Amino acid sequence: MLGLFMVMPVIAISAKEYPDYSAFLVGLAIGGYGLTQALLQIPMGVLSDKIGRKPVIAGGLVIFAIGSIVAATADSLAWVVVGRFLQGAGAIAGAIMALAGDLSRESQRPKVMAIIGISIGFSFYLALLLGPIIASQFGLSGIFLMTGVLACLCIFLVLFVVPNAKNIAPKGDTLPVIDDLKNLFLHPQLIRLNISVLLLHMLITLLFVQIPVFLIDLDWPLATHWHAYSIVLVASVVGLIGLMALAAKHKQGVMQFSVAGLAIVFALLIFGQHSIIYLMLLVSLFFTCFNYLEANFPAMVSNIAPAGKKGSAMGVYASFQFFGAFSGGVLSGSIGQFLGIQWVFGLASILCCIWLLIIRGLNATNRLKRYTLKTNKQTSSLTLQQLSELEGVVDITVVPNEQVMYIKAEQHFDIQQARLVLNLKD
Questions:
Q1: In this structure, which topology does domain 369-421 adopt according to CATH?
Q2: CA 164 to CA 183: how far, in whole Å?
Q3: Where is 395: in which H helix or E strand?
Q4: Which residues of 346-371 are buried (b: 16+ CB within 10 A; e: fewer)?
Q5: Which of 28, 206, 223, 307 could form a disulfide with 397 if both were Cys (CB 3.0 to 4.6 A apart)?
């Protein structure tokens, strides 16, 4: 992920060295990986269930490394775009989550998934700081070459350092199941979150086609861009802490405020960037709102998804997320080239206003817990009735082929009562 992200803060400037430079190709180069990620994320996850996690992960890393080399050796921006599409074809997020699930005990699995999510977020912030430094020293090809080397090191880690799976996690918690996808695509609450993450990543990709250009226009050389990003990141973390404190009592209000904040940022950007302080204030507000939404949407998907369908729900969510990155690059590049960046920012602000209407329909939900229990192939209707009547139970799904039962319940639910009903020992 570090390799995918490091390109974002520099390519709008570094790509001017290519003879076929255009704003449209820059947009494709920034967001192109998102299209292949969106298309292949679910199929690669399903494939890992058939041939094994490590072969899919290692194969995806090989494809990613090849894409990095293609981009590093490219003599035109069009070939950089091809390399980015190839990078995205190494869509291994689902297989990695499944392997992490296989290697962790049920009680520790949520922590493991959270740590992976945090590391992905951290890689984005690290990429904003490292990208300009590396590009100023070694150029855009240096970033891609380093990315290819890191991918090869990751192959070594996966094959020889990461343990082989010993306890296989029920795939309903980690992997998409094809039969579930249609219903989850149409789920009235999940579709709002899927559209939300699509718009969120569309906006950040759209913004990064333009921010490096603004900084150059304000006489900030590429080598110093990391100074601006470091200040922005610190300011946005402080803002995020404030939003999280407010969200403890006003979650829906803070979510709407965050989307409105994004709309305001793009509306003000229509009038240009008057000074570095003005630009950094707007970008800091953007990242404050972005960080809050990015951190909360996955938890909401997990909370809303039916019992035993979390893996499928997260697979659909990830596909929308990556397609949003692709859409943002295409829209920003094409509209910016043919109509001007004011139209790009105007469209972004209008989309945020529409987004506000979409999230108004999101139902506030309490924080729910999920449990996975081993069971016999045949679970009687009487047993299911008894389980559903236990205090705090919200949803139950039984998968006979996997000999597993998924329970979604409120915080005060006592799992020991469920085990007694199933005649299971703790």
A1: Alpha-Beta Plaits (3.30.70)
A2: 33
A3: strand 393-399
A4: bbbbebbeebeeebeebeeeeebbbb
A5: 307
The answer to whether 243 and 278 are in contact (CB under 8 A) is no
Residues 416 and 419: their CA atoms lie apart, in Å, by: 5
Residues 405-415 have pLDDT tens digits of 777 777 777 77
One-letter amino acid of 148? G
CATH assignment of 2-359? 1.20.1250.20
Long-range residue pairs from 192-196, CB within 8 A, at least 24 positions apart, any chain: 192/358, 192/359, 192/361, 192/362, 193/297, 193/300, 193/301, 193/304, 193/317, 193/362, 194/316, 194/317, 194/320, 195/320, 195/355, 195/358, 196/293, 196/297, 196/355, 196/358, 196/359
pTM metric for this prediction: 0.83
User: Cβ distance 143 to 207 under 8 Å?
Assistant: no
Compute how many other C-beta atoms are within 10 angstroms of the C-beta atom of residue 105. 10
pLDDT digits (tens, 9 = 90+) for 175-187: 677 777 777 888 8
User: In 3-state terms, what secondary structure has residue 404?
Assistant: strand
Backbone angles phi, psi at 26, to 5 degrees: -60, -45
